[in-house]
Amino acid sequence: MSNIPENQIGDWLKKLERESWQLELLVSAFTIFLLMIAIESFEGFILSIQYQYDLSDNFLTFIFIFLFLLQKSLVALTICLVGHLMLRGFWVGTIGLRSVQSSIDFSQLNYNDFFTEKLKKKVISLDQLVIKLDEICSVIFAFAFLVMSMLLAFGMFLLSFGVLAIVLSTLGEITPDSWDNVVGVVAAFIFFTTLIMGLMYMIDYFTLGFFKKVKWLRKIYYPFYRFYNVITLAVLSRSIYYYMISKFTKKKIRTVYGLVGAIIVVMVLFDFDQHQYFPSAETDRLISINYYDDLRKEHEYIDRASIASQYLDEPHFQLFLRYTPKDNSIAAEHCPDFVPVKDEGINWSLSLNTEGGNFTINDQDHAGEDFDQLLSCLSAIYEVSVNDSVYQELSYYYYKHPDKDQKGLLTVIPTSEFRDGENLLRIRKIRVIDRDSVKTGYQSFARIPFWYKK
User: Fold this and answer.
1) pLDDT tens digits, residue range 8-58?
2) Rounded CA gap, 322 and 169, in Å?
3) DSSP class of 390
4) Which of 387, 452, 386 is nearest to 420 (CA)?
5) 312 SS3 class
6) Would you say residue 359 has pLDDT above 60?
7) Which of 38, 84, 289, 323 is the most exposed place for a label (fewest CB within 10 A)?
């Protein structure tokens, strides 16, 4: 483009505009294919965060909101591109029809004068239809990426707001007690100022520049406007946004915003379900296929525990208990005098050795760990029973389940005392009632019905 004379740039751009539909079709089709794969992979990534990491509830909430909005932005982009692809197909078909029949011969239809006159006024020519469809398709193609950027911007705003809240909370915890009042006032001022200005930025965005029209506010609002432009990555879609709102009337844009907003509200607040007598909440009488290896979907995470099948006929059967990092605090309360070699979180993967004047780097050595005690502390937080029999002497082993390589405990339970037919496996987990007195109790963790044939 740098070699094109300035007087020819306009012609070059017009040529691109005329031929852009070919690129639109290719990009739409290829992007839809990639998005279908990306959405499925993204769902798996969100699940991996939930199952593999133990993050603070506040931080995890903001992370999930951001990832949820990012996922929905991909869905919205896919829907827009599918609509664009269908309209482009209609447009190509219209061009093909025009090459065969360029005008309507109403005399051949033999309608009465009333309908003939009405149709002549209402039915637009194929030339006008081709131009109109081309314009709509191009706008939808740009609008698809604008919708994605809007949802992503909102997610980035919530994420940055959450990070700020966590930072201010952390500063309040590490500062001396004598500074609590000062830190509290400063933190509250920063927090609410950032929140209010962020809300103003969002309102300004969706009202097509309401606060940009207020003259006395410009010097106060502009620094925050620049700041949130960076935080929300609005710079990526700013050109599309301003070109769109300058081309169409505010009434049309607000109508589209209102329609999309109403659809989102309805989808979030309402759920269509005609199964009145089927519970929406988890109940003891609900059989979850997640508990059974032969029924669970391939590569699906195990929620809590798992056995081989609903139907058993062997002298022993295996029980897998998924290990979640949230169990660390429970195991530590149960074994207060035992400290594992590994820290929770980040650990050194290498060790430095300078003995004998030689400098060597080796893998971290965990051979000094008391593995029996480590296993005992973790397995002791569970109580396993079948029907009315509580098992006190079960042997536990560390185990990585084939589904997603989930870490956990494996134990083998004899079936000699099982009754013929239906049996109920109950698993309870220790919960800490009072940390000061190390008082604990049990809460229900899993109930797994199964059928045994003697």
Assistant:
1) 555 655 555 566 666 667 777 777 777 777 777 776 676 666 666 655 555
2) 32
3) E
4) 452
5) strand
6) no
7) 289
